[in-house]
Amino acid sequence: MKNKYLSYLLLFLLAGLWSCSDDNDVFEQTADERVNAALAAYQKQLSGAPYGWKGIIYPDGGGVYSFYFKFNDQNRVVMYSDFAAESAATPKESSYRVKAMQTPSLIFDTYSYLHVLADPDAAVNGGSYGDGLKSDYEFSFSGDSLSTGNITLTGTKNQSKLILIKATQEEATAYGNGGLAKSLLFSNISKYLTYFKRFVSGGVTYEIAVNQNARTITLNWLTGTTVNTFTTDYYYSSTGVSFITPFVNGSTTLNGFTNITWDAANLVLGVTASGTKTTIVEAAKPIKVDVAAAKRWYQAALSQDSYWVSENGFHVNGVDDAFNVNSLVSGAAKYYFYLYWPGYGSNYDAFAPIFVQDNNATFIYLDAAKAPTFSTDGRAIFSGLGVVGDGYPTDGPAIASKNYLYDTNGFYLIQLSDNAYDMVSAKDGKGWISWIK
Amino acid sequence: MNIKITYNYIFSLLALAFLMSSCKEDSIGDVAEIADLGGPVIPPTVIDKYIKDSLTTPYNIQMKYRWDQFEFGDVTKTLVPPKEEKIIPLSRVVKSAWITPYVQQKSLTFFNMYSPKTFILSGSVQYLSNGGVVLGQAEGGRKIVLFDVNNFKTRGTADYVAATDSNKVKEFVHTLQHEFGHILHQNILYPVEFKTVCKGLFQGENWINISDAEARQDGFVTAYSSSGFDDDFVETIAILLIEGKGGWEKIINSIPAGFSANGTSQADAQAKLRRKEALVVSYYKTAWGIDFYELQKKTRAALVPLL
Description:
Number of strands of chain A: 29
Low-confidence stretches of chain A: none
Strand order of the largest sheet of chain B: 1-2-6-5
CATH architecture of the largest domain in chain B: 3-Layer(aba) Sandwich
Strand order of the largest sheet of chain A: 1-2-3-4-5-6-7-8
Number of domains of chain B: 2
Strand content of chain A: 35-45%
CATH architecture of the largest domain in chain A: Beta Barrel
Number of helices of chain B: 10
Shape of chain B: globular
Order of helices and strands of chain B: HHEHHEEEEEHHHHHH
Structural class of chain A: alpha+beta
CATH topology of the largest domain in chain A: Lipocalin
Structural class of chain B: alpha/beta
Helix content of chain A: 10-25%
Number of strands of chain B: 6
Low-confidence stretches of chain B: none
Largest sheet of chain B: 4 strands, mixed
Largest interface: A-B, 46 and 45 residues
Radius of gyration of chain A: 29 Å
Oligomer: heterodimer
Number of domains of chain A: 3
CATH class of the largest domain in chain B: Alpha Beta
């Protein structure tokens, strides 16, 4: 192409790009005007809800927690939280503001129940030091928050999800009257003496397992001889326990449990499930024994020449660390954890406390256990061959643990994950030990 | 490609320039409309009023407690804002155990000239990857960040446990005195001799692995003291002020007989601490004209009722 034409072509091209037509802005207002309008709208929406908001947060660290928020137009907010009994019963006021960060944001800017989840002090929330439960208290509004009735927020630091749902007058009244605290009575399910718990709804017996740290509920039930499993996250509301995923089985639909009652003297939890009152009852054995679980548990460690660890030993009759293994010492060495090591010796397994001595984890003595017998009904039955090592105590936690392990009724193994099993006494279901690998 | 410069080319460029200059400028809009320009407008609470009356008006000190991530240097760390009920008690202690002794001993002008003007509060400590925690930070003599406010308790707080909580009260005042010490020596340097007292015994980053008791056997008043010259100097000031004369003597006498891991004898360690004390006292006199022992008495007297 000749240079002459090129220069003209360039001219036309650039002139076309630059030629001024009318000012054709996409928006009629400036960015600042629009930000201010959005902030005002969010502020109005928050403080304008006459009965406040129910909030459900999904921290990045897992679990789900519920809140009740009542915002006013003076940067103050009153809260309830289902994290603990006290925060469920006592309202707490703190400060908040709606502010333009990179996007319009809602910041809870002085300490409140919401911050308990995010607190980097693990002693506050049971999370990890430095991170807490990886939750948030500074959120950005999602774009659709103004068009729908709910407000969806995303945490700035950990991307926790917070969903605000307008509360009704009844709900607001229920929160004010301790409704949330009443729902938390459900947490007493941990006080049942047996590992297995059941209830009946719609003519079907369900086995219920509650993980209060992860906030999950698992239901097991039988159709014929086949066991079915359903797991959902849950939170507490002003009326009871709410499932994140509703449970449907034929004509039975469970959105959760309502009307929670707790009989502290007899350790009985009453709930209304699917419109019918029922109680949660103790059970000595699983609804269906996983007969291969005991062998799986044993092989999982044996095949890797590895071992199963329990920090706190046996839980028996409602008492954590029933035999007080945490108090074990040997000279200057302190207790670290209990282990079961299949095939530790040429012809025996090791069941022993591990001690920390000179910054090293070490055996000092151990129970030499025979490889367990696996009964056809799925139990593992342990028995002893003798002891190895020096200074084996004559009584106390190690002896009590050993005697419990060698109970001739044996144990059921409940698989929680690849690397976690609970081993439950087959005698009465009231004692168990949690193994992790 | 080789473009020859011809009249046509120049002409077209000119035409282009003409076209461009004919465009009108966009207005940037009303700048007063920018969100939060001049700071957020928050209706003042009782706490805000207290801070204004007792710190901002007399000393030009701002106590910022509402959460603002960007006041904290490391945005990757997880912190939480302070509890509201802790702020007034903390402000009281800042005033009684740090501001008032300096103002009384020297002058309001001196204090207002050198004091940091902004306090930022965090409810929790800041956890470090090496297992340590941060309790206080100072930036350029202007700003002090106080951590762990949610655990602040003084005698009289409902669940105050003297055995553990008295250390926390001291820890806060310690941080204030420590950071103010930095500001003082950044304006007038301490005598060079101070750096030679514990020559060869400094631990640097390893300070986290030694205990206060071990550090004292080497003539450092705290483990953190042994991390570097400047921190050694201001830690000495801070401990002298918060422990008082009696507490200081107790620390010196607590050094056990024998030798430290680094071979410092008991007598040597004690002599080193006494030498540092003397250097601090003379520094305050010559550099600032302050009678350190009087300042120490006033600070300790303000602190005692809180413990």
